[in-house]
Structure formats: C-alpha cells, structure tokens
Amino acid sequence: MHFELLPYPLARRLFSLGYDHPTQIQSLTYTPFVNKQSFMAQAPTGSGKTAAFSIGLYLNVNVNSPKLQAILISPTRELCEQTHGQLKLITGLSVECCASAEDFKKTRQQLQNNKVQILVGTLQKIKSLGREIDLSHVTYIIADEADEMASKPDFIEYISQCKKSLALFSATFSDQSIQNIKEAVELDAEIFAEPEQRTQNAIVQHFCLECEHKDDKLDYLSKIFEKLLFVQCVVFVNSQTQVDAICSSSQMKKYSVLGLHSGLQLHDRINNLKKFKSGASRILITTDVFGRGMDVRSVTLVVNFDLPREMEQFVHRSGRCGRFGRQGTVVSFQDNKNNTVQKWAQQLNIEVGVI
C-alpha cells in the first residue's frame, strides 16, 4: 500500500501532517479494512496504529453521508480525547468524543442531528448513550488498547453482541486477552507487525537503578533530574496516593512537576495534561492512566518509580518515549534483591544497563 493510492483528500492530509510513507502496521491493515474483515492487530508503540485505523475508517465511511458510520472505543478519557483530535486531523470527517459527563449532552445532540460520522468514547459512555446510537449505518467498531479492555466482561459482552466488523489494536496482547476475544467473536485475521528498522530496542536505552531502601527513591529521582539531559519526563507510580505524595514532597518543590491520575477532579486532569502537553511543565508524575497510547513527542525520559505489575505494562510505559524515531531513556527503580527488570529484558530481547 502506498499513500498515493488512497483517496486524494486523505492522501493530501497525510502528507501535510508529515506522513511520508506507510508504516508496516498501516500497510498490513489496509487490505483487511478494504475487505471489511474483523481482525486483531498488534504493533509496537509508536509504530503508527492511530494512523492505521484512521486510514481504515476513512475507507469505510461514506464521506457524503452525515450518519454515524464508525465507533472507536478507548479505555481512558485522556486517550479518547487524544485519538479524537488525531482522527479529525487525519480524516477531516465529523468526529465526536464522548468520554466524560461533560461530553454527554453535546454528543447526544450531535447524534440526534446526524452530525457525527465517527464516535470516539469510553465503553461506559458509549453504552450510556444507548438508543441515541443508531447502529444501522455503522460498518466498523475499533478498539484501541484492546488487550486491556479484553479483560473486562462488559467489553467482551459488547463486542460479542455488536454484529459489526471489528478491528482490535494494541501494542501487546496477552494469551488471556486473545482467548477472551476469540471466545466472543470470530476473527478473519490476526496481524502481528514486527519492529521496523527504527525499533524501540535501538532508540530507547534501558537502565535499572537498584534502591536498597524505598525511602531513598525520592533522592534518586532528584539526582536523575539533575544528572540526565531530557526534554520532558514521565514518572510512573502504582497508586494515586503515591502521585500526590511525590508532587507535594519537599524534594520536588524545585522542579516543575504535575500529577495525573483518575482520582483527580476532571478540571484538574484536563488542565494538568494540557500543561504537560504544551510544555509548560517538564515532569509528569502519573499512574498507568498515562501508560497506554498517550503521545507527547517531546518525552525523552521515562522513570518507573514503581515497577509495573506486568511485563506488558512495562512495554507500554517504555513506549511513552523514543516515539517516531526519537531517542529515549527508561530508568526503572528496583529493589536490589529483585531482578524483575532483567527477566523482562531477557524476554523482550533488550539490553538493560545498571546505574
């Protein structure tokens, strides 16, 4: 597949946004989308999955019809809003986002007035729209970060009952999530894109920092900020209280840090993410609400202050830096009696230095 073969309005938008040629995942999903097949697609972080399903949706939407023709589901409000913006830029179609209570009234009105061709939202909000969603013209339902949602019974029930073509995208699929999906729907294809020449392995350098005492971790974090060169940094922890504690700690007062987790007031979540994306703050302390799919291209450093509980989440967190050919560094804090990072590195075929 070459962009020149796509409909002119779509190709023109892709070129104007800096997409020179299709990535592997974009090429591999082109034919299944054209044939309206149901499929799952796995590709590394930063490999162009959003553009892949944007192209696929455009090819399956009658641009002259104002009817709802596609639905895209994402697991978090932040990812929904990011995807919503990218879909509008790439396709130029009427795309609406419903990922919070504040979105609901506007989205419902737009659906009633036939002003939504593609609907983006969390599963909860899409289900809450109920009868407002007319599925009669819908050709595709897309699930982004599908492996995470596949562990939830309500998502499995939804895709098993939708009776539409499905495209399930993620950077990783666990054996359990694949089993859950296959028990719910019949897939026409399974696509696994390999890392390309500009692989994450080559772009992202991984390091492990052994911490003998948990109380020393904040001091180590301060030293990382002082010693390492970075444009922007994302620091991952495993709890909301940990985010708040780090942000309010005396060691962090001299840095421009922001916190992000699902327990914050929506106004604060929106403002903090907007400030970080704009570059007003260099450092974001967050839970895994930022761990999947979020794209801030100036992030060059990721710190696993707390190790994730699963290797798949380690992959997703690491993918927040080194995106689209840029350099990145991942530093993971680890108890000196623990060798989890080394085990994951061996399975992922990556090298990890010790600092």
TrEMBL record:
Source superkingdom: Eukaryota
Known catalytic reactions: ATP + H2O = ADP + phosphate + H(+)
Keyword Nucleotide-binding annotated: yes
Pfam family, one: DEAD
Domain Helicase C-terminal: 223-355
Domain Helicase ATP-binding residues, every copy: 30-191
InterPro entries listed in its UniProt record: DEAD/DEAH_box_helicase_dom, Helicase_ATP-bd, Helicase_C-like, P-loop_NTPase
EC number from the UniProt entry: 3.6.4.13
Keyword set, alphabetical order: ATP-binding, Helicase, Hydrolase, Initiation factor, Nucleotide-binding, Protein biosynthesis, RNA-binding
CDD domains given in the database record: SF2_C_DEAD
Record-level Gene Ontology MF annotations: ATP binding; hydrolase activity; RNA binding; RNA helicase activity; translation initiation factor activity
Gene3D superfamilies in the cross-refs: P-loop containing nucleotide triphosphate hydrolases
PROSITE patterns: HELICASE_ATP_BIND_1 (PS51192), HELICASE_CTER (PS51194)
Entries under SMART domains matching the protein: DEXDc, HELICc
Uppermost EC category: hydrolase
Free-text comment about domains: The Q motif is unique to and characteristic of the DEAD box family of RNA helicases and controls ATP binding and hydrolysis.
Similarity section: Belongs to the DEAD box helicase family.
PANTHER family: RNA HELICASE
Function: RNA helicase.
Protein name, entry field: ATP-dependent RNA helicase
